[in-house]
Amino acid sequence: MARDSRYPGNQAFVEKYTARYGNEPSVWAAQSYAAVHIFAKALLDAASIEPTNIATALAQINDFDTILGKFSFDANGDAIYDPVTLIVKNGKLQVFE
């Protein structure tokens, strides 16, 4: 996970994760963190624990800010987001631009 990601909350996530676990988070940790926040938004929006209500709320998520950027679902339920490509430079992962 790159510290220099341009998305809101990313640097705070990296700093807190590193302080707690002693190393920077992997991309998998960041994706899991974002997924939990997406699901939490759906639960709050659904105001219910009924699966159909949660599914409806998930489907309506549009341009939701995550540490990985804006996130939405399309009509087929596929994720819409701008992937971040990383490159190893001087032995560290950095955002490829």
Secondary structure elements and their pairing?
Elements: H1 10-21, H2 27-46, H3 51-59, E1 64-66, E2 69-73, E3 79-80, E4 86-89, E5 92-95
What does this structure look like?
The protein is an alpha+beta fold and 97 residues long. It has 3 helices and 5 strands, in the order H-H-H-E-E-E-E-E. Strand 1 (64-66) and strand 2 (69-73) form a beta hairpin. Helix 2 (27-46) crosses helix 3 (51-59). The relative contact order is 0.17. The model has no long low-confidence stretch (mean pLDDT 89).
The biggest beta sheet is recorded as: 3 strands, antiparallel
| SS class | alpha+beta
Strand content: 15-25%
Order of helices and strands: HHHEEEEE
Shape: elongated
Q: Give the number of helices.
A: 3
Strand order of the largest sheet: 1-2-3
N- and C-termini, Cα separation: 15 Å
Uncertain spans, ≥5 residues at pLDDT below 50? none
Please report the total strand number as a whole number: 5
Q: Average pLDDT value?
A: 89
